[in-house]
Hints:
By secondary structure, the chain is an alpha+beta fold. Helices cover 30% and strands 20% of the residues. The protein has one domain: Structural Genomics Hypothetical 15.5 Kd Protein In mrcA-pckA Intergenic Region, Chain A.
Amino acid sequence: MEESIRIDKWLWSVRVYATRSLATEECKKGRVTIGGVTVKPSRVVKVGETILVRKNPVTYSYRVVELLGKRVGAKLVPTYMTDLTSEEELKKLDESNGGSLFTRDRGAGRPTKKDRRDIGKVTDW
């Protein structure tokens, strides 16, 4: 177990971000907060802190259970962090991905002018 670890390295280690440089960039952009304060990538993480990570449209919240410096497998992530993200936030993700009211069959070809008008009526164009 590590004694102190940077926030960018911890976020990468517990698989919140795919690369450490991406975690660093997100910290610099102000999308990572601890205790309501945006943090720099060099901020040291402590056990028990709650970290908020904004990935539009959802704000994820995680509690630090244990510190680590190496990236771990997805099955081991729950030993190092607890996901505190509310159901309301996760519903935002479902709404943004499943927003299609109209679907066309694959291979149906290009829509005709009448089809486009019908699609416009359904989707409120």
